[in-house]
Amino acid sequence: MVLVAALAGQSRALAQEDYRFDIGGGIGMTGYLGDANSANLFQNPSWDVELLFRYIANPRINWKTNFYVGGLRGDSSQMDNVFPDGNNFKFSTTFYELSELFEFHFFNYGMGETYRRLKRWTPYITAGLGLTAWSVDGKGGAAFTIPLGIGFKFKPALRWNLGLEFLMKKTFSDRLDGAALSDPLGIKSEFMKNTDWYSTLTLTISYEFSKRCAVCNYKD
User: Fold this and answer.
1) 199 against 189, higher pLDDT
2) Whole-prediction pTM value?
3) Where does residue 12 fall: left (phi above 0), alpha (psi -120 to 50 degrees), or beta otherwise?
């Protein structure tokens, strides 16, 4: 009887575990595509560190705020393309990114509440808008970005989440790799073309908090 009561209590606890937010961080690697690397995204991989804050709207939809610090590198001497006068360009920078993303889970994600058909894992797609700042050769720059990507989440325990996320980020600038590479072929960049891209592949861990009201009682 004691065992049955304990299991029933655990079942009720699982059914009530529903939180509005989670917070966490992660580490990973970055890639770059631009004038100093036009083909192989991970030709010169670098690093990234992420802080995240997520609003859990429901088991299918989340809103996430990201803050990234990371490195980017490129070297045009590794490409088959040849610049005028045989010039080669190499750069390295640290970037800072703040972005807001919408996440859509393929499955109802969570634990407990079996009537909702919650799963402890789910793939998802994500997209949003961000702002990235950087400095190359002592000259700073900033641009809006559009991050697009996919991810996978797993819940090893109540309130804890592990994730792996890959994002490609289009920057509305051709100066992410420095002023020398803003127009190496004499082709002026425009708002929607001839701009730089970078990626982040990040492993994250997060913790849920701020319990959602399970039963709301109304009194006059």
Assistant:
1) 199
2) 0.83
3) alpha
